Amino acid sequence: MRRYGLSDGQWEQIKDLLPGREGHVGGTAADNRLFVEAVLYRYRAGIPWRDLPVRFGDWKNVHRRLRRWCESGVIERIFRHLAADRANEYMMIDSTIVRAHQHSAGAHKKKDADQGIGRSRGGLTTKIHAIIDAAGKAMALSLTPGQRADITEAEPLLDEVDPEVFIADKAYDADPLIEELEDRQITPVIPSRRNRRHSRKISFSLYKKRKEIERFFARLKQFRGIATRYDKLKSTFLAAVQLVSAIIGIN
């Protein structure tokens, strides 16, 4: 297997989800595997697109095809298909901040266009929000500007899953979220903030499972193009996060 390439097992699980596959209406794409490996190589190594090794072909074509797959929802379909095989015993939510490189700024301004880049004391940043299942696989993902509060993405992401137990840290201790969990008969394992008048009792043996999401983010950030955002468009960066999350989930 080439450096940063797909294993045969990983390829078997995604090949039938791609456009141009054998038996698919329209043209065929015999180089689908090479293209996916080119995208993974770029984000794993954190290099500019123009520095892709020549074996992947013209870098402009690779980038153009990635944008086409983003716009047509191909990568999101891969992520959601693999996320459908989930362990519902418990799930957990958290976020991580990644530095946005100066080259990620400057996308063409459109009305109400949110590229998920914010300014904070540390400069330009993007925040990745994730829910993972008991097996450590990503179930739901979103991006916001780095200064956005974690709690703002909890309910939208929770709409995509249905766990028996929901684990989070104190940043997610908010009455509307707790009430929604209880209405859906999901057990919240969320420590109470200090200013709560009446603290909730939680299972700390379950709360310790939260280390799994820290491990997920650590694996995600082994891809240098994820740990530092270079993409101008939110849709491109989100697609990269979805693809990498899907691949590491089937290792």
TrEMBL record:
Domain Transposase IS4-like stretches: 93-244
Ranges where the Insertion element IS402-like domain occurs: 6-79
Biological source species: Acetobacter musti
Protein name: IS5 family transposase
NCBIfam families found in the cross-reference section: transpos_IS5_3
InterPro entries cross-referenced by the UniProt entry: IS402-like_dom, Transposase_11
